[in-house]
Design a protein that fits this description.
alpha+beta, OB fold (Dihydrolipoamide Acetyltransferase, E2P), 4-stranded antiparallel beta sheet, 2 helices, about 35% strand
Length: about 140
């Protein structure tokens, strides 16, 4: 039985380099429990440094938990059928909208509290959320 390993940063870097050389701007790949989406700027001609997850945790002192400021229903996309605003394992910028919370028919944007990598969501899509409840982890 073959095991499914999460690709290393070097493996992702090699895949990005191959995409650059062959002119592929966007690539989605997944296997069992992992997925990766590459979106490349073919005009840049270089690949930005990719840190190993262990390096990220060491540099930031470990993941931080972001909590809800509202009571409502958690959604990863702004509307039904739309793409998720953020994907686990991908970098996010401080202030970037990573999810939404619907309360009393009003949609509140959940923004990343700092630059980092979205380690994981701690709440399922469509789940009810309480004030102060942990929503996601950033590394």
């Amino acid at each position: 039985m073959a095991t499914s390993r999460i690709p290393s940063a070097a493996g992702i870097r090699a895949l990005a380099d191959l995409c650059l050389r062959s002119g592929v701007e966007e690539l989605d790949a997944s296997h069992d429990t992992w997925s990766v989406r590459l979106r490349l700027d073919l005009h840049a001609g270089t690949i930005a440094g990719i840190q190993e997850p262990a390096e990220l945790l060491e540099a930031t002192g470990g993941p931080t938990t972001q909590v809800s400021q509202w009571v409502g229903v958690f959604h990863r996309a702004p509307e039904h059928g739309a793409d998720a605003l953020a994907i686990e394992g991908r970098p996010v910028r401080e202030g970037e909208v990573v999810a939404v919370l619907v309360a009393m028919q009003l949609q509140h944007e959940i923004r990343a509290e700092r630059d980092g990598v979205l380690v994981r969501f701690l709440v399922g899509d469509g789940a009810p959320v309480e004030y102060g409840q942990p929503l996601l982890e950033l590394a």
